[in-house]
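REVIEWER CHECKLIST
Item 1: Sequence provided? yes
Item 2: Single chain? yes
Item 3: Sequence as submitted:
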Amino acid sequence: METLQASFIDFQHYLRRPQYRQPLSDRPGQKTALTLQRFLTAYPLLLGVLLIAAGNVIVARLITGEPIFRPLLVRYSSSVGLLLLASVLAVMIEEAIFRSILRVSPKRIRNLGALLLCILLGYFYRPLKEEAGTFAGFGLVIAWATISFGLGQYLKRPLVFARIERFWKANFRWILYGTGLVYGFMKIIDDVYTLHHWQALLLPLFLMTWLLNGFYFGYVRMKYGYWYAVIIHSLVLLAAMTPEAICLL
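Item 4: Structure as written out by the authors:
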């Protein structure tokens, strides 16, 4: 078992000098039991992150008087299993969007490109529909599928992917920092609309919490693997929900 100080030092060291490396769970010959054991020995840092997540919700509730998760908890009070399943699925999607790309591969780049293209085409769907009618949607789907397939084939070329991977390794520090910052600032948007007047002074505090989560999830993703990041993210979400769930009992 690592102490809180030891696990925090390892986390801090990685943030200072991020390394583009293969996670433990993805390494050939690495036993799952050994990876899980190393993952569990660092639990003191996880407990600290969970306490911060729960404390963030408590502070927000005390300051604003507005519940964050209560409407969701009330809605699914009769089906806790469904709520947990939906939460895990949401976390899996979120981790796939924000952090799977940390480990670059032709498939992941293609999937991310296809997602971004889908969002872009969705933005232009309405004006195109007004001009071209109902066939606009069919045409956009054909264009999306064609471009996505072509991108996938292009990325499969060894020389193309080799250049991308070299770029990723050389700039991985900024890629890791970028994903953490984007995650933190996207999450803080929810707090912006719940804080009024002087309460806005708490935004830096909440932003620091979200940034901590974003960088910690990235650290876990690169050290242990995707599914470990999903587990950590799900536990943090559960810790954030717990204070309001207790109030409903």
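Item 5: Key structural point noted by reviewer: The first helix runs from residue 4 to 16.
Item 6: Recommendation: ____
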